[in-house]
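Extended Data, panel c. Modelled sequence:
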Amino acid sequence: MNKNYLLLKNILKKSEKIEEKKIDHVLDWLKKISKKDKTKTKIIKIEELDNWFFKDGKILHKSKQFFSIEGIKIKNAYNREVKNWSQPILSQKHGGYLAIIFKIEKSIPKFLLLARREPGDQNLKLCPSFSATQSNINRAHGGKLTNLYNLISNKKKIFLKTYHYEEGARFYKKINCNLLIKINKKDERFIKDKNFIWLTKSQISKLNFKRGILNPFVKTIMSMII
């Protein structure tokens, strides 16, 4: 078994007795951050999208990166509601990198989450420290590099690593890399965004039972240390 896994499990077992468990202040903080969020979303027609186009039966980004929307035909699905059907599906050449940064402070592991909103979210959610596809890292969107990439890309800081596939009814063979990144005191100087918050495992476990608070990828990453 992975020695880092065993090491962290042992530390967590000891810290569980003394670490912070209350979450009321976390929920209050998230409410305050949410009030400052000016993001607006609106459903529009496909033909109104910027930088996306229809070609060869697919919807693509102009960079030919990110995801595409394609058609898929299924036959002989013996254990499903119907045997044969066809549907749209999201296809992505590059998978994603999903990471939670953690530190050990006074013998207590603390995990860094980010209050962030995806286009389909109703409100801000607590997300991994870092979430990006390879297309984001390539800056195919023409924007800036995802925050904290300098820490995530440092292989020496990878503490635990695993892979998971996206939900197969909507994504075609998309695989994500899940990472736990351990940092030291000096590395904390890179964490400047006010939407970051340090939480204990006990707090994250409690927040898991609050509706619409945790991004699902937090759960998949934290499952490495269950």
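DSSP finds six helices and twelve strands in the chain. This feature is highlighted in the accompanying rendering.
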